[in-house]
Specification:
alpha/beta; Sufe protein. Chain: A; FMN-bd
Length: 306
């Protein structure tokens, strides 16, 4: 029997429904031409802010230093990421892309200039922004996509999510990402433990001949019934956003099989938040497939009340 890999994660409950929370317009964020990131360390400022919503489910972060590193360089750089937790809060976010000499991409003047001209932003600007956003949100899901750096944002959120899961489990062993490796055939599964608005994510990727052959992503209730079958909810969301789970969930699954890379998928109009949540979990499953690790990923997702 395979041992389950207990990994935890975070999902934020916002307003009346998860999917309606951040469903925005259909404009696609510009994609940066290369994967890029750089170091930035930000301390959580102890200022008076609006009281945080009450957590109703999900594991607490355990104090410690949690590290993730890519093994392979992409365009001469690889990601390194350290998250520090103190008193149950993320107090430092140190995300970087370094070359073989350990030099940060933020110091690559030529690349920064080229990307700035093409996308309107560069690593020396958007990486500090991502790190700061992570500290403020205290979750990967709460980090907004940076215009002009969509691919880098999605990569950041995937790795931040995995570090949060490690922190909830108290696992300080370095997470190694075999980025770019061939996908190993098999079934790779991720499931959330906790319901948000009565539903939780269940996601399985099937890899055959080194390709994603099936994507089975869904939101299910305590009885295992899909949100696509919730007629009342589908009607309500369709009236507000112009789409609904019975439409966008199949669209997301189809898009991943067609594109093979979450970062190359289009954001579904009216389901922006759901698209990004899908991409974040899909990236994590792909990381598992790169290693050939078929143990179920159990996500102890954090759920907040109003």
């Amino acid at each position: 029997m395979k041992m389950k890999k207990l990994i935890t994660g975070t999902t934020v409950l916002v307003m009346s429904t998860l999917l309606l929370a951040a469903c925005g317009g259909g404009n696609k964020d510009a994609k940066d031409t290369k994967q890029s990131s750089a170091a930035s360390t930000e301390k959580v400022e102890k200022t008076e802010e609006t009281a945080a919503p009450e957590k109703i489910a999900g594991g607490d972060l355990k104090d410690g230093e949690y590290t993730l590193e890519e093994k392979n360089e992409n365009n001469g750089y690889r990601a390194v990421f350290t998250m520090v937790v103190k008193d149950g809060k993320i107090t430092e976010s140190k995300y970087d892309n370094i070359n073989k000499d350990g030099k940060s991409k933020t110091e690559d003047a030529e690349y920064n200039k080229m990307m700035k001209e093409k996308a309107g932003i560069s690593p020396d600007k958007f990486i500090p922004e991502l790190n700061d956003a992570f500290l403020k949100a205290q979750s990967a899901d709460g980090v907004d996509v940076v215009t002009g750096a969509t691919h880098s944002t999605e990569s950041f959120k995937n790795y931040a999510q995995q570090l949060i899961q490690a922190a909830q489990a108290g696992k300080t062993d370095k997470i190694e990402i075999d980025n770019g490796a061939d996908l190993k055939d098999g079934e790779y599964t991720l499931e959330e433990k906790n319901e948000s608005n009565g539903y939780r994510t269940a996601f399985t990727l099937v890899v055959k001949d080194g390709k994603i052959a099936e994507s089975k992503y869904d939101n299910i209730n305590k009885d295992g019934k899909s949100k696509t079958e919730d007629a009342e909810y589908n009607k309500m969301m369709n009236e507000k956003s112009g789409t609904s789970p019975d439409k966008f969930i199949p669209e997301l699954n189809k898009g991943l099989v067609e594109k093979q890379k979450p970062s190359e998928m289009d954001v579904v109009t009216g389901a922006t938040h759901s698209t990004h949540a899908f991409q974040m979990y899909a990236e994590q499953l792909i990381n598992a497939a790169e290693k050939g690790d078929t143990a179920k990923i159990e996500v102890d997702n954090i759920v907040f009340g109003k």
